[in-house]
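Marked as duplicate of an earlier ticket. Keeping the data here for the record.
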Amino acid sequence: MRAARPSDCQSILRIYERSLSGLDDEGIEWYLSLLKAEAGNSIFLVASMGNEVVGFIQAYYNGDKGYVEALAVDPEYRNMGIGSALLTEVERRLRRRGVRVIRLNVKHNNLKALTFYLRRGYVVDGVTLLLNARVSDLVLPSIENLMVKVLSRDEREALSRDIEAMPSTWWSSITEKADSKVYKYYKSEVSLAVYSDGKFCGIVDFQPEDTTVIDYLAVSYKRPSNALKALLRGILLYSRERGIRKIIIPVDSTKKALLKTLIEEGFKIEGVEYRLLKLLSIG
């Protein structure tokens, strides 16, 4: 096992496409950007046999919290302990960096992955809901003095640094620092900030596609339901201009106010992911 290199990206993408179908699509541009950014709070490892990359794992950490973003092994090399070895190594490296709690998400119908993690000491401690809506079905009221701003990379990083906001998902507080650096290289990602009467309402990151999955969404802690309505209006305006047909937003089941607002505005639950947790021993 070793740290991933830019030259590994084609192999990583091949393994991703063969092993993680049904998950958010990642392209070679994303992996190249991730490795170029050299974000200080991320770990990206590959397992190789000879000169061939046969598996990889990507993780983030922030303080005493860690998050496994992806773990995949080439189907031709499964049942050889490669996945277990990658997970054990990333846990060891996270522990060495002071991480005490590690979490990850597994789709509810991925029973093989769920069993894999449960056997290795992980427990289910929550769920994330995936909510979707067709842009043509959304009818959001107009909001006076609404401003939607497409952020440059520097503006996005500065806003993340200067403004505290409530993220829709638990992992966002762990990944945002690293991802904000990645976005400097990853040109496909769009960042929007929405303001009402000059006051910050929220921020959202996504890659515009026919079906757009929101990568990051956070709203002002002050009146978050109203802030989310303004942010949704901004997303809707942008989506209609760009021909986006469907929007998917992941939200933790504990974010009751955000879930209530999304459902009231026409979003429906289309999927569920289990949140798994493991406590890392000290020493």
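See parent ticket for discussion. The longest strand covers residues 123-134.
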